[in-house]
């Protein structure tokens, strides 16, 4: 069984909590505004002219709050849907990665400013280093040309290829700077609920796989990317220091 660090779907949960905090702050703000409304109404009875200033401020705040609350509620709904889907897919991938030998280390849901976001899973082992993105998409996933990715031949998801490869490259640079080991980081996209087809003649640095083929791929990759046990241990220690995930 592989060594595991971090918690799957932690990034999505953090984003959801952040949106929820914004929502609660607005609820408190609206309660304060309602209190001001009562105060303004009382002030208008004794000093109508003076009441115009707080009344105008109240109207502006209510208008801003209404727009912001609507946007946050939409974001919370979208985040809840994305979290349920993403958490399911990432959990399935995390479970599959436990089947790697104990010579492999797996980091789940890691975030660092240099990545420009987060990486769902990082795998380090004798066959190299892999930056894995889990996509809970349905249908037929096709990779063709110089990295054209589609769902059912019509829904273009090519930007996801660029994002995955960029984060893999950023990780590669970090490993070189911190470990002084010049190793290639392979970008991988895995699909727990979809079929995958790579068109003949495709020339792309990204690897795409169904979940049931992932472990086989990770343990039988190109010999030119292999790491010695010392190199793998050094990279693992430096990732622990860099990312500071929580061990599970």
CATH class of the largest domain: Alpha Beta
Nearest-integer average pLDDT: 80
At CATH level 2, the architecture of the largest domain is: 3-Layer(aba) Sandwich
**Backbone structural class:** alpha/beta
Number of domains: 2
- Measured on Cα atoms, how large is the radius of gyration? 24 Å
**Biggest sheet strand line-up:** 1-2-3-4-8-10
- Number of H/I helices: 5
Question: What's the order of the H and E elements?
Answer: EHHEEEEEEHEEEHH
Task: Provide the low-confidence segments as ranges.
Answer: none
CATH topology term of the largest domain:
Trna Endonuclease, Chain: A, domain 1
Query: Span from first to last CA?
Result: 13 Å
Strand content: 15-25%
Biggest sheet descriptor? 6 strands, mixed
Shape: globular
Helix content: 40-55%
The count of strands amounts to 10
């Amino acid at each position: 069984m592989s060594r595991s660090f971090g918690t799957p779907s932690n990034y999505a949960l953090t984003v959801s909590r952040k949106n929820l905090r914004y929502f609660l702050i607005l609820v408190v703000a609206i309660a304060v505004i309602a209190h001001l409304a009562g105060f303004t109404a009382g002030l208008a009875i004794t000093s109508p002219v003076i009441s115009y200033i707080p009344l105008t401020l109240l109207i502006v705040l209510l208008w801003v709050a209404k727009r912001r609350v609507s946007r946050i509620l939409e974001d919370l709904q979208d985040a809840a849907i994305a979290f349920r889907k993403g958490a399911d897919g990432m959990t399935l991938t995390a479970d599959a990665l436990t089947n790697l030998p104990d010579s492999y280390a797996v980091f789940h849901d890691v975030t660092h400013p240099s990545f420009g976001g987060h990486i769902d899973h990082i795998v380090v082992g004798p066959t190299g280093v892999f930056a894995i993105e889990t996509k809970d998409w349905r249908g037929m996933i096709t990779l063709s040309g110089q990295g054209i990715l589609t769902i059912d031949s019509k829904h273009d998801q090519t930007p996801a290829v660029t994002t995955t490869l960029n984060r893999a490259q950023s990780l590669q640079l970090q490993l070189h700077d911190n470990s002084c080991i010049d190793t290639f980081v392979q970008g991988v996209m895995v699909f727990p609920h979809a079929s995958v087809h790579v068109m003949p003649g495709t020339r792309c640095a990204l690897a795409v796989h169904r979940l049931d083929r992932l472990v086989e791929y990770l343990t039988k990759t190109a010999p030119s990317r292999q790491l010695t046990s010392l190199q793998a241990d050094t990279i693992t220690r430096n990732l622990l220091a860099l990312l500071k995930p929580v061990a599970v």
